[in-house]
């Protein structure tokens, strides 16, 4: 009997979701086409160098999606569905704090965790969960109504969850079951045609458009699907030239002369889509909602906690300077700050312990019988070992807040005099009954494994 492995399920799921989303949101297809065009040009111009952070095959197929759910129970079900595809919750993002207007969610990202799995298919889904218990957003009455509404809906059919548990346990599924799982999983993330209860939706919308998007309807949906591009500035220009109105910034690090680090993202608001609305008297009329959008991203080297602290520090410095110099663009200010304070080469980032790399023996290493040196720096400098950057596979809370933000219309309401409900990675782990993994630990492990192997191959003690 032929079977489909987890990574094949994941790759097939990403491809089908992409096909579905392209049919539902035509601007997404434009984005994918322009991304491919830019990637091919970058590859031609930069050759092998363009593939240092992932093969062109990987980058071209690479996507992340985003979904939003309402309760820990629903998030635990999401974890089962993605667990079937070899995707695990990594990282904790508190968007309640990061956004200027009301975004009452906490988030994690489901993604493959080991290097080989990432190379096969790096598909990831940024997944947010509403926080009805946060009194800054919801009063006790609305919280109770919201929780009752959420408790009564079913996002994922039992058949899907049963198949998902089997795929996770067996790490594969027979072809026929795999087909069924993929169908049910994609269908559960399509935009529903069920009429929206207008009064209820608007009640939540007054608090936050995100709350309405999550708790105002009886289903969930993928709200964007993001291709990866090798030159995001060029992509931004081309999309603008095609008349697609992008948000006014690229989130994350500036364009600068040093290495690409972490993640740069930009987005555009999707058009309003026609949706059936149910009115108080039970009649249905046609309305429109804007709930889906487009986003694109460029990925760079993963930073260590020290590197990340520096990144956050620079963000603060840029904010500070931008507030005093309203005539200069944020990009120009950021570039100047980075050129002053961020190490400008991969070698320096590695030497300062600011970024993660994997190491392997160089093909052209000395073979004259000389002894290899005992430190990583010296091994690299003397040509024994080559360093390859580890790509950042995760997200940035401030950028994510910017993406949420730029796609909202109203400000919503948040009562900052109240104390927010506490939430962190440990609580989220408890709520969904599985570990939310620490991204730094994953990168550090990947780096350490590669160094252990190099040490073994060279007959060195630990390096
Ligand atoms: C998620 C927004 C964040 C990203 O790439 O940072 C995000 C959402 O709108 O649900 O997708
Ligand atoms: Ni996104």
From TrEMBL:
Organism name: Streptomyces broussonetiae
Family: Belongs to the 2-oxoadipate dioxygenase/decarboxylase family.
Domain of life according to the entry: Bacteria
Protein name: 2-oxoadipate dioxygenase/decarboxylase
This protein's UniProt keywords: Dioxygenase, Iron, Oxidoreductase
Keyword Protein biosynthesis set for record: no
Record carries keyword Iron: yes
InterPro entries (UniProt xref): HGLS, YdcJ_bac-like
Biological classification of the source: Bacteria, Bacillati, Actinomycetota, Actinomycetes, Kitasatosporales
Residues making up the signal peptide according to the UniProt record: none
Entry EC number(s): 1.13.11.93
Names of required cofactors: Fe(2+)
UniProt GO molecular function: dioxygenase activity
């Amino acid at each position: 009997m032929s079977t489909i492995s987890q990574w094949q399920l994941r790759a097939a799921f990403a491809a089908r979701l992409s096909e579905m989303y392209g049919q539902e949101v035509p601007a997404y297809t434009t984005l994918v086409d322009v991304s491919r065009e830019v990637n091919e040009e970058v590859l031609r111009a930069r050759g092998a160098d363009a593939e240092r952070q992932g093969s062109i095959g990987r980058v071209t197929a690479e996507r992340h999606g985003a979904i939003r759910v309402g309760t820990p129970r629903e998030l635990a079900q999401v974890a089962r569905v993605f667990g079937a595809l070899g995707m695990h919750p990594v990282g904790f993002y508190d968007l309640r704090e990061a956004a200027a207007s009301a975004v009452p969610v906490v988030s994690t990202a489901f993604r493959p965790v080991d290097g080989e799995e990432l190379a096969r298919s790096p598909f990831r889904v940024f997944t947010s969960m509403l926080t009805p218990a946060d009194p800054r957003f919801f009063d006790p009455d609305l919280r109770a109504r919201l929780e009752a509404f959420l408790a009564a809906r079913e996002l994922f059919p039992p058949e899907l969850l049963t198949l998902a548990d089997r795929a996770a346990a067996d790490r594969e599924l027979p072809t026929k079951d795999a087909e069924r799982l993929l169908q049910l999983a994609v269908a559960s993330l399509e935009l529903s045609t069920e009429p929206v209860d207008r009064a209820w939706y608007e009640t939540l919308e007054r608090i936050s458009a995100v709350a309405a998007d999550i708790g105002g309807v009886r289903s969930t949906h993928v709200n964007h699907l993001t291709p990866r591009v090798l030159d995001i500035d060029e992509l931004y220009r081309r999309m603008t030239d095609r008349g697609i109105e992008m948000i006014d910034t690229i989130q994350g690090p500036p364009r600068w002369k040093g290495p690409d680090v972490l993640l740069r993202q930009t987005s555009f608001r999707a058009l309003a889509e026609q949706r059936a609305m149910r009115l108080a008297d039970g009649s249905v009329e046609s309305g429109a909602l804007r709930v889906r959008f487009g986003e694109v991203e460029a990925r760079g080297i993963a930073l260590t906690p020290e590197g990340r602290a520096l990144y956050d520090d620079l963000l603060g410095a840029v904010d500070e300077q931008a507030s005093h110099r309203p005539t200069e663009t944020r990009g120009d200010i950021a570039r100047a700050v980075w050129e002053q304070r961020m190490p400008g080469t991969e070698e320096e980032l590695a030497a300062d312990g600011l970024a993660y790399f994997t190491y392997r023996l160089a093909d052209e290493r000395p073979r004259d019988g000389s002894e290899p040196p005992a430190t990583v720096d010296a091994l690299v400098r003397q040509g024994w070992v080559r360093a390859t950057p580890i790509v950042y596979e995760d997200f940035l809370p401030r950028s994510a807040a910017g993406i949420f933000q730029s796609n909202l219309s109203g400000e919503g309401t948040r009562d900052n005099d109240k104390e927010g409900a506490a939430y962190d990675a440990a609580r989220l782990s408890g709520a969904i009954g599985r570990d939310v993994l620490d991204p730094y630990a994953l990168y550090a492990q990947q780096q350490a494994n590669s160094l252990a192997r190099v040490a073994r191959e060279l007959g060195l003690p630990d390096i």
